[in-house]
Amino acid sequence: MPARGFNISLRGFWYLVLVFLYAPLAVVVLFSFNDANTAANFTHATLKWYTRLFADNAVISAFKKSLLLAIVSSCIATLLGTMLGYGMYIYRSRRLGWLIWLIYLPIIMPDIVYGISEMTFFTTIYRQLGVLEPGLGTMIIAHISFQVPFVALLIYSRMVGLDARLFDACHDLYANSLQRVWFFLLPLLQPAIISAFFLAFTLSIDDFVISFFTAGPQSTTLPIYIWSAIKKGITPEVNAIAAVMIGAVFAAAAICLAFQYVRASVARKD
Questions:
Q1: Do residues 240 and 49 lie in contact, with contact meaning Cβ atoms separated by under 8 Å?
Q2: At what angle do helices 222-230 and 236-269 cross, to 10 degrees?
Q3: Alpha carbons 55 and 34: distance in angstroms, whole number
Q4: What CA dihedral angle connects 115, 120, 124 and 127, to 10 degrees?
């Protein structure tokens, strides 16, 4: 096949993949503007469902809890994951290097199994010690526990790509541990750290299974609210909530990409 024909076929396949990925999201957003109180037929566009959505105190409360949960857990997970990723890099060639592979277990484990195990753990601790009552606090801990592996692997992959002689150069220049972290590691790891934060934020903001099993009666997040509302059927209001969540995730991804673009532009100018 000529190169031109191959490129056209590859481009067509790429467009088909994009349609396959984003067509369901586009349908959800489209029907969130449906005037009819049904998902069967689209009559004409309206914003009344978004007006009701932002006037509903239950939805606003769930959104605030989701945002608080995502921000707090992502910040802590980014800090812990960065330190863990650095430790994975330092001990990668020693006897404990095989323990690095344990970091993959929370990633490949089914969410429902992980959620049930977290629920059992928190319930047992609460009954025995009277602490860690199911609620927003246990949800934050549970989210951190499954966000940290993703952050650690991103940081580790960035560390592996660094030239090992850079560490020797820091030592030759008599930089102490704090100076190596502040003037060498953090600037080099900054793109990976920011990307890891937004990845953790995205994983948290739309998580349902783990949040459902670790939540308390007063800690309803937006995904849990959607699950409760969808029992009555898929309505334009539910689609509007989903559209808001889609917009939040796209905004987080856009901010991350914009930061990387600006950083790359600055690097090219230098």
A1: yes
A2: 150
A3: 18
A4: 80
Domains of the chain, residue spans: 32-269
Task: Note the pLDDT of residue 151.
Answer: 92
Phi and psi, residue 45, nearest 5°: -75, 145
Task: Assess whether pLDDT exceeds 80 at residue 197.
Answer: yes
Q: Which CATH superfamily is domain 32-269 in?
A: MetI-like (1.10.3720.10)
Phi, psi of 218 (to 5 degrees): -110, 20
What distance in Å separates the CA atoms of residue 51 and residue 39, rounded to the nearest whole number?
18
Assigned token pair, 62: 């769930």
Report the distance separating Cα 265 and Cα 259, nearest Å. 10
Rounded mean pLDDT of 197-219? 87
Instruction: Pick the closest to residue 46 from 64, 32, 66 (CA basis).
Output: 32
pTM of the model: 0.80
For 181-221, where are the alpha helices, taking DSSP H only? 186-205, 209-214
